[in-house]
Amino acid sequence: MGLRIGDIAPNFKIETTKGEIDFHEWSKGSWVFFFSHPADYTPVCTTEMGRTAQLSDEFAKRNVKSLGLSTDTVEEHNGWINDINETQNTNVGFPIVADKDKKVAGLYGMIHPGESETAAVRSVFIIDPNHKIRLTMTYPMAVGRNFTEILRVIDALQTGDQYGVACPADWQVGGDVIIPPSVSMEDAEKKFPQGFKTVKPYLRYTSVNK
């Protein structure tokens, strides 16, 4: 079985463009956006690395550390970063794992033989401060990730944790949220004094401040 939501993200020690890291120690107390790439010096990956760097302030506001991975060396990563900074008009400041032996890619199930025997697909892991995997997404090699969705789901997860709510389809920050069916009407009235709308006994909307 591969890694699933709710699993503890496996720890690893490895070289990155920011030196060697112990993943659990490096990420302690923060959320993590951990994402893999097929290879350095490839076009879609270049735009994704650049977009992650461009959104560094947005990730920081959410207490999220970004960590990239590609099955190339630190030297190759550093050369590629120069191209990313130039072509994407940004400054890559987050570490990129040098997984040349594919150990981490194998640990996290990032190698999909139907796509490639040697290159990682575009995997996404959102990991919380307790090292628990909260979301996984996998994109094919030829399709870049939707970073609006990545930020949206982080907002939804953090809102759910803070207020004990769920988020409906297409939810955005500021939108109504859902009171879980496990919360009784009596408890809901205490927990959400701002009030709520009952559409069905199992479908109750309320508002919270993110």
Radius of gyration: 19 Å
CATH architecture of the largest domain: 3-Layer(aba) Sandwich
* pLDDT < 50 runs, ≥5 residues: none
Average pLDDT figure: 93
Number of strands: 10
Q: Provide the spatial order of strands within the biggest beta sheet.
A: 5-4-3-6-7
Number of domains: 2
Architecture blueprint of SSEs:
Blueprint: E1 13-16, E2 19-22, H1 23-27, E3 31-37, H2 43-54, H3 56-61, E4 64-70, H4 74-88, E5 96-98, H5 103-107, E6 122-127, E7 133-139, H6 147-163, E8 177-179, H7 185-191, E9 197-200, E10 203-206
Parallel strand pairs: 3-4, 4-5
Antiparallel strand pairs: 1-2, 3-6, 6-7, 8-10, 9-10
Description:
The protein is α+β, with helices and mostly antiparallel strands and 210 residues long. The protein folds into two domains: 7-148, Glutaredoxin (3-Layer(aba) Sandwich), CATH 3.40.30.10; 164-207, Antioxidant, Horf6, Chain A, domain 2 (2-Layer Sandwich). Helix content is 32%, strand content 23%. It is built from seven helices and ten strands. It has helices at 23-27, 43-54, 56-61, 74-88, 103-107, 147-163, 185-191; strands spanning 13-16, 19-22, 31-37, 64-70, 96-98, 122-127, 133-139, 177-179, 197-200, 203-206. It has a five-stranded mixed beta sheet with strand order 5-4-3-6-7. A three-stranded antiparallel beta sheet has the order 8-10-9, with no helix packed on it. A hairpin with a 2-residue loop joins strand 1 (13-16) and strand 2 (19-22). The protein is elongated, with a radius of gyration of 19 Å. The protein starts with 12 loop residues before the first strand and ends with a strand. The model has no long low-confidence stretch (mean pLDDT 93). The active site is at residue 45.
